[in-house]
């Protein structure tokens, strides 16, 4: 039995424009949702769409404004990725670099040129860009003027963005993802779709209408991509992780199925091309009426994705008993504490076998190639005077997850395209806005208050991952 992974496997790492680029108004870039999300106590109310903050003020610190300044360091950073042996670099485009207001007629040439240079730098080293079209990124002008994805007009603006980038980069980029973690609109609506809520609004109904608009956007992107280049491979992207039942009580098992469906709903539509019956029944029960336009059903049916990509950090646990089902810390998902698992410093439960379970669940469900585009451990690193970090805890986390991934491929026959661990270089945490919650193989000298030299240095995990890629995971 092959111990490693198939030849041509896309090893790499993942970032997002809003967490690494910085230079938030340079090169004619417009203001984006992430640019008005502060660090500190107001962060979560803004992310959940409960507190409206449409401008920046002097009282708050906004981590995205400088982030790790990839905008000015991309050559150095990509050279480090190449040194590790990356075959693939997952990154996203900042919508407002290309259309500063979102509704501009003509794109911003300076922004387009920046991404040309980033892609050229990747290709120079033989690194395939894997590009997320929008990764938690909505132009603030569209939030203010049309309510962002609440409005069907957003589909037209998104379509315009897709036409421009697909045409411009068709000889440089082959792999595209339509929306990052599309299911996050249900959990962190301002981050996922630029949503804010008015008093008395049926929030659940709004979220599912927005989901429909994004699903239509995704299908249109897929259609345009195929018209522009038959070489393109288009994927969807899910925040994944199976939900376990707290006990073997059938009620708990049923609850876990319902929880998983909440997230699979989006991918069911993107991969199978129609709304699943369980979703239609859920809408009926909850008095949700999703407004569809003529031709929507055909559009969804005829433009399904080529592959399924997902993030995996941990599994989840749920109970049917409301008394038991008290929330704990974790990613944007509420989950019970699993007594069989250890947790990270941020309360995320570490479950490598859960990755194999999730891979099998997704592959069994869709029978399309899958791609793990995020996985990693957020931890506090303590560098020595040279910026070197002995991050054995990160190596251990990744090693166990890579083993589980290999088992899913070699023992279970799951078709896996690649693996791009999250935050291959330290960047701003999407959830907490912190720098101290680090994921990278590369340390960036910057703290939570935004102070530091931005100097890059290699951690112990840098050399470990270089070895993994070189040996195609035969040396872990």
Explain this structure.
- This is 6-phospho-beta-glucosidase.
- Belongs to the glycosyl hydrolase 1 family.
- By secondary structure, the chain is of the alpha/beta class.
- 38% of the residues lie in helices and 13% in strands.
- It contains 15 helices and 14 strands.
- The strands form four sheets. Strands 1-2-3-4-5-7-11-12 form an eight-stranded parallel barrel, surrounded by four helices.
- α3 packs parallel to α5, α7 runs parallel beside α9 and α13 (352-366) runs parallel beside α14.
- The longest helix has 26 residues, at 203-228.
- The two termini are 16 Å apart.
- The mean pLDDT is 95.
Quick take:
38% of the residues lie in helices and 13% in strands. It has 476 residues and is α/β, with parallel strands linked by helices. The two termini are 16 Å apart.
CATH class assignment: Alpha Beta
CATH architecture: Alpha-Beta Barrel
Computed Rg: 21 Å
Label the overall shape.
Answer: globular
Element-by-element helix/strand order? EHHHEHHEHHEHHEEHHHEEEEHEHEEEH
* Average pLDDT level: 95
Q: How is the biggest beta sheet arranged?
A: 8 strands, parallel, barrel
Estimated helix fraction? 25-40%
Number of domains: 1
